[in-house]
Amino acid sequence: MNKYFPSVLLCLFISGCENREAPVYQRLKKKGFNILAVVQNLTVQEKHLQDSRDSSSYALGADLGENLKKQYVELDYDAFLTGLKFGYDKDDDPLLTNEERKDAFQKLQASIRSKQQEGFADNLQAAETFLVENKTNNPDVQETPTRLQYRVIREGTGQSPTTMDQVRVHYEGRLLDGTIFDSSYEKDEPAVFRLNRVIKGWTEGLQLMKEGAEFEFFIHPNLGFGQRGNQDVPPNSAVVFKVELLKVFEKNIK
After folding, report:
1. CATH code where residue 222 lies
2. Which of 53, 76, 119, 144 has the lowest CB atom count within 10 Å?
3. Tell me: the pLDDT tens digits for 77-132?
4. What is the distance between the alpha carbons of residues 155 and 169, in angstroms, rounded to a whole number?
5. How far apart are the C-alpha atoms of 233 and 83, rounded to whole Å?
6. Cα(151)–Cα(153) distance, rounded to whole angstroms?
7. Which residues form the domain of 81?
8. Collapsing DSSP states into helix, strand and coil, what is residue 240?
């Protein structure tokens, strides 16, 4: 994940950073790379994790792969694995000079920025479209002046929280494609937090609830995770939360 590899993108050689007919690529071809053989070998390795070194190596690779995928990096496995082996073992001649590596990094960063901007814009448009259609097609969905949308699943009878109160809740957060990115149900334990320390959609939305209520919130990115997103929510994404308000604490609890 991102937190484990904050600078990994500065250490990659990828296809797409240079013309495939450039001298660098010709050098790779002369090495006789065979991507199918590499992938087949990796598949075998995955099935035989026999010790802690195998497991930690696989875990590092899995986290790295997820991180690169999220950052729109297109990999050439042969070139990547060859570069990784060279960087780790230093037992062969480099295929890139330092200047060529620097140039590849710069092109990579430019490509990532461009794809990220396209993705951010697409996510925001998808959020806008979803919320308009959600309000239009579902008469039980209500909307506040801030554009927070919500649906009452079950009314409560207890007290409502204020921004300074702590609450105990069960919740499930989903992306628009249905992917669950966070859930107290999966952890089998309700969450406790102060209402002014969460995303704006929660701060506003939970004040509409009473103890015992269950609501579903449809949250615009401006009221959610914004342009930055987080490790599980892409930037500018609308999110859907189902929330049960179990308890309101007027004072902080430990």
Report:
1. 3.10.50.40
2. 53
3. 888 888 888 888 887 788 888 888 888 888 888 877 777 677 788 999 999 999 99
4. 15
5. 31
6. 6
7. 2-96
8. strand
